[in-house]
């Protein structure tokens, strides 16, 4: 009986550790997936003055949904950038009748907020960040791209 309980505990522990880890995408993969979803992608790396960023991409579709992808030198950069962006969204949108989620699992973090006509999300996987503020009408377009990226 003890061996059976121990075996189950080991399997559950292994599953929980593996489930929390996501693979970050590269700038090239982000570009490919965004273009497949109808976004135009512009490399803003040389124009954005973001200390610690190795890539900065701006994606926009015909509905004026604008998504930013940033790849950092390391995870600490991405964690800090995530927290700054999340704080901006909290301050801007969490009053009144907002609905928000805040998830931290393994090497990823995700914060989303919907307040009236605004939908905003910031997501970090390892050393990468994706963030967007848009009309709630275009939430599905954002979610489709993020699902494609496994974010």
The strands making up the biggest β-sheet line up spatially as 1-2-3-7-6-5-4
Pick out the low-confidence regions: 1-18
Structural class: alpha+beta
| Individual helix count | 4
Q: What's the overall average pLDDT, rounded?
A: 89
Broad shape: globular
**Cα end-to-end separation:** 40 Å
Q: Roughly how much helix do the residues carry, as a percent range?
A: 25-40%
Instruction: Give the strand content.
Output: 25-35%
Order of helices and strands: HHEEEHEEEEH
Q: What does the oligomeric state look like here?
A: single chain
Q: What's the gyration radius in Å? A: 17 Å
**Number of distinct beta strands:** 7
* Main beta-sheet strand count, sense and barrel state: 7 strands, antiparallel
Commentary on this structure:
- The protein has helices at 2-19, 27-36, 75-93, 139-148; strands at residues 40-43, 53-60, 66-72, 99-105, 108-115, 118-125, 128-135.
- It is globular, with a radius of gyration of 17 Å.
- The protein starts with a helix and ends with a helix.
- A hairpin with a 5-residue loop joins strand 2 and strand 3 (66-72).
- The longest helix is centred in the middle third of the chain and has 19 residues, at 75-93.
- It has a 7-stranded antiparallel sheet with strand order 1-2-3-7-6-5-4, with helices on both faces.
- The chain is built from 4 helices and 7 strands.
- The relative contact order is 0.17.
- By secondary structure, it is α+β, with helices and mostly antiparallel strands.
